Amino acid sequence: MAPVLPVVLPLQPRIRLAQALWLLSWLLALAGGLTLLCSGHLLAQLWHLGTFLAPSCSFPALPQTALAAGAVALGTGLGGAGASRASLDAARYPPWRGVLSPLLAVGTAAGGGLLALALGLTLILPVSLHQGLEEGLEAALVHYKDTEVPGHCQAKRLMDELQLRYHCCGRHGYKDWFGVQWVSNRYLDPSDQDVVDRIQSNVEGLYLIDGVPFSCCNPHSPRPCLQRRLSDPYAHPLFDPRQPNLNLWAQGCHEVLLGHLQGLSGTLGSMLAVTFLLQALELLGLRYLQTALEGLGGVIDGEGEAQGYLFPGGLRDILKTAWLYGGTAHKPAPEEAPPEEEPPKEVLPEA
Question: φ, ψ for residue 311 (rounded to 5)?
Answer without folding.
Answer: -135, 150
